[in-house]
Give the backbone structure.
Amino acid sequence: MKVILRSYALSDRTGLIRAINAVCGEGLWMSTSRFEPTPAWEHALADPNCGCHLLLLAVGTNAPVGWCRVFREPDVQGTVASLGIGLLPIYRDRGIGTQMAQKALAWAWSADVERVVLRTRRDNHRAVRVFSRCGFYVTDEAGEGWVEMACDPPALRAGRSNASIGLERVLRLPVVSVADRERTWL
Ligand SMILES: CC(C)(COP(=O)(O)OP(=O)(O)OC[C@H]1O[C@@H](n2cnc3c(N)ncnc32)[C@H](O)[C@@H]1OP(=O)(O)O)[C@@H](O)C(=O)NCCC(=O)NCCS
């Protein structure tokens, strides 16, 4: 099964939505049972070239089989972004999700994002493993089996082990609650 990772293009819209609906329809991982696009999602689908977001696809023979997106969150400084990711079942456990998440984080740090946040089910052990491997850590409980996770830029992560270097920047980062029920964590 050959899969390539590339940016979303307008012609991918139908296939991507089909893949998202398939993952949502499993009823296990996402907060909605079908794609319910937020304004940020609508913007990403309509304007692939806008630099404010990343929408990365995993593409199989003919169509998208997965996605990873990073959308800036409307915090005070515009420095926090959220990440969402999904793959069709038969493409899981092949390292694709890890690769997509790592690329997404690299994009975020290059775009001066200072924290990437996400929300996942606590019992989604595969996702938690991937996110932890990429540097995410649990920041909060989000009720009903959900947890919030965050990832900081590599320089800041290194700083955490050397309190004198990193603490000041950590403290000035905005506290962002990602438990907004209106949001689709796709
Ligand atoms: C989460 C997801 C994107 C991860 O992508 P992926 O390509 O399957 O992940 P990878 O293959 O890179 O890594 C999976 C890891 O989880 C491990 N794993 C699989 N099932 C597991 C389980 N039940 N418990 C613990 N670890 C598990 C794998 O062994 C692998 O770790 P390893 O590389 O150390 O062996 C993908 O599985 C997915 O789309 N899941 C459904 C949707 C979803 O959960 N999205 C995230 C919602 S926040």
Remarks:
- The chain is about 35% helix and 25% strand.
- The first helix runs from residue 13 to 25.
- The helical segments are 13-25, 39-46, 96-110, 125-133, 154-161, 163-172.
- The first strand starts at residue 4 and ends at 7.
